Amino acid sequence: MSHAVSRFAMNAVARLRDEREEESTKPFLARGSRAPRCHTCRVIESHCLCSWRPQVESRAGVCLIMTRKEVFKPSNTGWLIADVVRDNFAFIWSRTDVDPELIKLLSDPQWQPYLVFPGEYVAPERVTHTVEATGEKRPLFILLDATWTEARKIFRKSPYFDGFPILSLLPEKLSRYRLRRSTRSEHLCTAEVAALCLDLAGDVDAASALDAYFDVFSQHYLDAKHQLELNVSTPAHTELLPFVEHTAPVMP
């Protein structure tokens, strides 16, 4: 299988990772980072995911607010979202050094930002469970791609988010995320959250493609981790296949 897909433009999360690598004086070694990985999809090379990247349209955009460590983690799912949603943006969070491009994006009149965060931690008048899917402004989902402790800190110490509605999701199913340990099975990973947001915005195909892409990524990642042979004949691959450009991805 090809380990790079040149026809795809690099997404915002990948650009952010590469910028951080250039700035770092020493490499960040996440768990599992010593294994040879595809630079594009971050999966161990024998189980590369690049040929399974979906091609789908969406009206909504996504803005990922990431910590400095999160952008390097192979198990991070933010880059899956940026692969699927064409209008994707990513920024490293800093309390004191706010990226002016982030402020510019948040004030762009084409977007209606929604900060995705649990409603029980927010004043009720700011909370919504729905998304305005029509109208002149397009939804821009702001996703705090960090641990729960970090996300709460970002939420509290980012006054430039104060004027935006809080989109509080009501998921009907438990998280399928198995790549990191969590004490709360109801905590969704970032890709699962984004798929729910896209569905609320009426981007049904993009939501379905991201859901399937996430499941395929999880299988490739875990099979590689446990040294299992790659299996592309799973229900998740079958579900993703209609969204993959050309008739079928290249098989190993």
TrEMBL record:
Q: Which GO terms describe its molecular function?
A: tRNA-uridine aminocarboxypropyltransferase activity
Record-annotated DTW domain positions:
34-226
- Which keywords does this chain's UniProt record carry? S-adenosyl-L-methionine, Transferase, tRNA processing
Q: InterPro entries annotated for this entry?
A: DTW, DTWD2/TAPT
Q: What is its EC number?
A: 2.5.1.25
UniProt enzyme class: transferase
Tell me one GO biological process term: tRNA processing
Determine the domain of life of the protein's source: Bacteria
What protein does this entry describe? tRNA-uridine aminocarboxypropyltransferase
Tell me what organism the protein belongs to: Pseudomonas frederiksbergensis
